[in-house]
């Protein structure tokens, strides 16, 4: 709230009024009242609001109860004490014997502090015993007098059950004094020392709980002072009194001041350590008690002190309550200050509560933001500990949460325990009765499991036979193509019209070229395409091309049907559509000669590669090697490789082409699409628990796998790139590889991160290859009988 030229002499009080009267323009009303009355007394203005009915009785009390403390200015304190504001400091002298006032009769001294002597006195008017604290030393020292009178004013205005009440201020010829409640008890330091003398752990825990109850009362008093805008600056066990009936009082507010003030104490510009004990209050340049100072206080930065500094002192007191000794155990103030600068507390005792240690550690954090938000939060965490609740400083793990619940709910815990015991007894009895039934069920389940696994293995064997028939079908087509090629080469007329790749690219191709969505290019379903190696003689190439061109109709008929087709294609129109839409696993059919000439069907534009030589391709080399090895079964299947014509991965059936004398002339081949084989034979979504399938060669090397359906591949840039086929590596189970190498079929269960896997494999007899299927064993066993593998329909008869 901004100040005005006339009004707001005490803005804090007006702020309380604004908060209590949100619907009233308090500032305007105050200005109007000041103009009318010629006064700026906020208390009188508040009384005016009550008399006129603007403020209710409850609000009137709250306005006065919640306002900040008011401490007289130095000049006002000097005037009150009868001192000149220009008084200089002189060496303190021994206090003169106090003079008795009309009201109080002094009975004798009780104790002595940094600034005053406390006397026991009798109140003649009310006939009660009180304590009189009289200023000691040179009463002409203005700073000492101000502090003493400020202590009296602050203590009197801290109207809290745990702050010692002040009855009145006495100013006489022998100096200033004030009367306060006589506290019959011991200091907290004495109580702590007495509690830790007990060797009985149970008694020690009980005393600790009592100490903590006392300590939270101290925190309440300090929190109240902070709410009033005052910090104590000298909190320690010696300044806390504990009465015989549980009374707790925070004493000695001589160093207290308003926090956040723009000025610092005039005598705290530097730290000067005296020869006093580290546990005694320093009233000179060092303000406070070194053994209970926060780091910022120990560094002499008194303008930075605030509620967090008092909280730090309270944390050190909590350390002393828990351990029975000070956190800074050294006796010399200089050594204590070195610890205080870095908040280096001593170690906790082994038996100390971890929760209380965590609470004390947070309250005594080196940096103020790392401490509790305020003393109330600090006290709340201690109360949580006393109630057995989870604390903010040390949150519970799952075990601690369960332990706390059991401690709080002992009846429920006992009931649960008894219930568990009764259930356990019942379970033992029931389990004996259930065991026989379980054994019978286990026998039935074992039989059912065996039947399910056997059915799965049998189904894999049937699928393997179907796959073998599939390969035999295309081997038969390849053998027929070899016969037709031999006839064309040895006895053909060589009059056929042929077209090269250049013809297809240059628009000179045959009539009837259509765009094929599968081949992703224009193709001819009636004609093929020829290619000659650049190293072949032109005359030889022309002669060979003319002979091979006569094979186009034979090659076209190879696309008429497959082993799964019950009725082969009859009409030319249907056959053309079948080729264009690729309703067959066959990708390409071709014959390549040792002279470097090749004829391929269907006709299409390919790489305009003048270096292309079919004799360098992997399928040709495999066919030629089979002839040179003199293998009894000349039909072979290549390893998968990437088609240069852009049809992805293919596997080729190859058969050498020979003349009547057994001389090698070339090879006849047909390509089957890699993905077509996967879709028709290796992908088995109808099998329960199907994971993957593999086609292994006789050495146990993976030829095709269903897992590679959409795997990426690299297309060779030209025919000069060496391509030995795709390598999927060896099958991962050594037992399976060994069985395949030995020509055995079988099954086994293998563990995997996802659970047990059933691996079944069956040998393709005529090839030496094996079909391997991997499935989740649990899914096979749990499948409904209707979903279990059944007998696979037989494949179509071989051509």
How would you describe the overall organization of this protein?
With 799 residues, the chain is an alpha+beta fold. The chain folds into four domains: 55 residues, no CATH class; 111 residues, 2-Layer Sandwich (Phosphorylase Kinase, domain 1), CATH 3.30.200; 202 residues, Transferase(Phosphotransferase), domain 1 (Orthogonal Bundle); 210 residues, Beta-Lactamase. Helices cover 39% and strands 17% of the residues. It contains 23 helices and 25 strands. The strands form six sheets. Strands 13, 14, 15, 17, 18, 19 and 20 form a seven-stranded antiparallel beta sheet that branches. The chain has a five-stranded antiparallel beta sheet with strand order 1-2-3-5-4, covered by helices on one side. Strands 22-21-25-24-23 form a five-stranded antiparallel beta sheet. A hairpin with a 4-residue loop joins β2 and β3. α5 crosses α6, α8 runs antiparallel to α10 and α10 packs antiparallel against α12. The longest helix has 82 residues. The N terminus and C terminus are likely disordered.
